[in-house]
Amino acid sequence: MDKLETLLEQHFGFTSFRPGQKELVQAVLDGRDALGILPTGSGKTLCYQLPALVLDGLCVVVEPLLALMDDQVARLQNAGQKQVVTLSSRLTPPDFQWLLHHLNQAKFLFVAPETLMRPDVLNALAALSINCFVIDEAHCIAQWGPDFRPAYLRLGEAIKRLHPRSCLALTATAPKRVQDAIVSELQLQAPEMVIASVDRPNIFLGVNQVANPAEKQVSGIELIQAVNAATIVYFDTKAQAETWAKALQQKGVAADFYHAGLPSQQRELIQRRFMAGELQVICATSAFGMGIDKADVRLVMYTYAPESLEAYSQGIGRAGRDGENSASVVLLAPGDLSRQAHFAQSLPDPQLIKTIYAHPDAYTDFDDPQIALLQAYVQSGFSQAQVQQLLAQRADEKMTSAQAVATYLTNPGCKRALWLRYFDAPTTEHHEQCCGELLGPQIAALAKSSLRVAPDSDWQVDFARLFNEV
């Protein structure tokens, strides 16, 4: 057993690394930058946790969502690591400032890009020794940065300011152009590149054609009942998520809906019930999923054409994390692809950019996503010319992504082969459990997960019981 395996066993109890882990751990220990594209469930977090426990200084981890931060903090604390902190909007201003002035006592810091770019946060971190600057879910730089979180596009500036010993970017899905964008935006220096195949052979890649939206719901519910195991169903509107959840409940299926319009306490309860096996089905918008590590999800269903193959790959990667046979399926109706192409063009045009930049203070209270995006760019310090260039480039990328999705969904040949080529991964032999229409034979091959369905009850009562309030 060499030195790295000894450290692995000492800190985590494992005797061997999973593919890709050892090379990334060694790069961080050597003080080199690295980019790791590893499949969902391959243990990406260990790639920074192990070096950070060995090296002196602070490990800064940039996460896109509070749920991801909570998950990583809980895992580290359960493993006995108590020097873990999160800087977020949930802290009161006094608590935030107290933590900011005591970061020298921490081993791990989890932070969102918007919080990281605050001047007081950057000033505090600049005074510390940072052993590793980690960007988890690094594909967000290319996909979320231009669309609605421009702070992601300033991470390279933060790295330049903080001078970390090494930088480590991690994600599960990134084709070559996204890999290049990550390296360029973060200004990684001769990074160690560990690129694994995006393929998940245990997940059937299904596309089922339906005649209309009404048939989509009927067919979808029939598939969910036939699979009869943990299922995530994705929608592009909150209303559809709610409608399907109620329809499933009427069929006797333990289902609930999840979207950003719900109170955070209710979202937390729904997620916990799903993780515990008390709910069979989550009907959700894209607000649900990232960081959800439930091993026995057997079906991930899309009721609309995904915005990109990257987003689709992230979504279906929530199925079959235990390695057992599982499935994904897109329910495709006439008009879905044109609807998706329309959404791909929904970025601010040059005239709106000019208007907002001329009088930014006059548009602070508008409930409009395009105006909100431009306000975020203004607050992040981007010039009007920079924004016009970034959004023009992003519009082209989104159309290219929409065309790739359309080709995938309508291609009569092997969908897995096309999908893998998109991600520059080696193709595999086609077989019955590979891809196509999700039908009885494929459903019969799925592993059955154990569901523990709780009696029907009001969610407020459940939540109060969960936190010992009744």
Automatic annotation (TrEMBL):
One of its GO terms (molecular function) is four-way junction helicase activity. Signal peptide: none annotated. One of its GO terms (cellular component) is cytoplasm. The keyword ATP-binding applies. Keywords: ATP-binding, Helicase, Hydrolase, Nucleotide-binding. Pfam families: DEAD, Helicase_C. GO terms for biological process: DNA recombination; DNA repair. It comes from the Bacteria. This is RecQ family ATP-dependent DNA helicase.
